[in-house]
Amino acid sequence: MNSIKITGIVAEYNPFHSGHSYQINSIKSDAIVAVMSGSFVQRGDVAVADKWTRAEYALIGGIDLVIELPVVFALNTAQKFALGAVALLDRMGVDEICFGSECGDIDAMTTAARLMENESPETSKLIKQLISTGISYPSAREKAYEHILPKGLLSTPNNILGIEYLRALLRLNSKITPITIKRHGAGYNDLIPHGGTASASAIRNILKNGGDASSFTKFNSKPNNLSCLDNAVTANLRMMSAGELQKINDVSEGLENRILKAAAEYHTIDKIAESVKTKRYTMSRIKRILISSLLGITSEMSEHLPDYIRVLAMNDTGKAVLKELKIRSKLPIITKTADYKADNTLFKMDIRATDIAALCEAENKKAGRDYTTSPVIR
Questions:
Q1: What does the alpha-carbon distance between residue 321 and residue 167 come to, in Å, rounded to a whole number?
Q2: In DSSP terms, which residues pair with 68 in a beta bridge?
Q3: Contact residues for 12 (Cβ-Cβ < 8 A; gap 6+)
C-alpha cells in the first residue's frame, strides 16, 4: 500500500496565475507533483522565464515537487506532449492525474478518448478526405466526430489536451486515475481579462507591452523574447538541406521545401512562420519546427519515452515524495546534472535547450546553467 497519495499535474506555468491556483486548491491529495515544460513551450515559443524561476512560482502556488518535461515532448504536438508527460507520471507511480477542461465532464472525455484510440476505418477515411481540402488535422478531426461526440467537445484547447491525456493513459495501460476540473473565468486564448481572471496568453501580452499583471500573477517581469533567436534560426535553416530538415520533428509532406524557401526570403521566426502557415499548417506547428530545427530535435527522438526524473524544485513535502518515488519508480532521479553519467539523447537536448533559451533573456545569457543551478528548495 502506498504511504502517501500523489496527484500529478501537467503544466507549463507560462506564467503561473490564479487559474492554476484554483486547480491546485481543488485537489484533495497528500502531495502534488507538476511535470512542467522547461525552456520552450508547446505553442512554439520560448518560456517567459527560465525553468527554475517558473518552478519556484509553482512552489509558492502550492505545488510540492516540480519535474521537467523533456523538451523533445514539450516542443511537440498535443498528442506527443501528452504522451511524454503522462508516461513520466506513470513511470513515477503517481495515483491521480488532474487536468482542467472547458466541459468538466470526465465521462464524455473518456468516451472520446476511447473512440479515438479505436478509430473506425470510416472515421479515419473521412479525416483524410477533410485534410485533403486544406484544413488542419484538428479541424478535420472535429468535423469527423461532430455527429458522434457532444457538440463542442473537440473545439476547445483544454478539452482537446485533456482527451490526449486520457488517450495516453489508455495507450500505456496506466493505473493512474484521471480527474478533471472545469475551467472558469477567462478562456485559454482570451487576450482580455474577464471577471478578475486572465489567461496566460493575456498575461504574456500585458507583460510584453510593459503593463502591470500583478492582479493575475505574482510573476511580473519582462518575458523572454523568442525574436532573439531570429538570426540563429534563419542562419541554421539557410545551411540545412531539404533532406536534413525533413528529419526534424513534425516535418512532413514537403513542408521542408516551403520552410527553406521562406527562410531564403525572410529573416525572422515570425515572418518565416507566417509565410509557411496555412489552414493546414498552424502557426504553432511551424514555430515548433523552426525551434526544433535549431535544437536538432528529430522525429525519431520522440519515439523514446522519458526515462529519467529531472527535479527542478521541491518543498518539504516534495522531499518526502522523492523518497516515495525511489520506492515506486525505477527511473533515475536527477538533482545534480554532473552526477548523471548516462549517454541520454533526451537529456542532452534539455541541456541544449537551456543554453539556447538563455539567449532570449534580457541579461543573463550564459550557457551551462544546468550544471551551476541547483533545484529550488522552499
A1: 26
A2: 36
A3: 36, 37, 41, 42, 47, 74, 200
Site of grid cell 527553406: 260
pLDDT digits (tens, 9 = 90+) for 118-177: 999 999 999 999 999 988 888 999 999 998 999 889 999 999 999 999 999 999 999 999
- Number of residues that this document lists for the chain: 378
Contacts of 28 (CB under 8 A, 6+ apart): none
If one counts every other C-beta atom within 10 angstroms of the C-beta of residue 331, the result is: 17
Q: Report the Cα 265 to chain-centroid distance in Å.
A: 30
pLDDT in tens, 175-202: 999 999 998 765 555 656 666 678 888 9
Q: What is the largest CA-CA distance in the chain?
A: 61
Predicted model pTM = 0.94
Q: At what angle do helices 106-117 and 137-145 cross, to 10 degrees?
A: 110
Q: Is the dihedral of CA 145, 146, 147, 149 positive or negative?
A: positive
* Closest to 37 measured CA to CA, from 322, 306, 373: 306
Query: Cell numbers 533526451 label which residue?
Result: 346
> For residue 344, what are the contacts with CB-CB under 8 A and spacing of at least 6?
307, 308
Q: Is 313 helix (H, G, I), strand (E, B) or coil?
A: strand
The burial of 121, by beta-carbon neighbours within 10 Å (0-12 exposed, 13-18 middle, 19 or more buried), is given as exposed
Distance CA 205, CA 194 (A): 14
Q: How far apart are CA 351 and CA 141, in angstroms?
A: 35
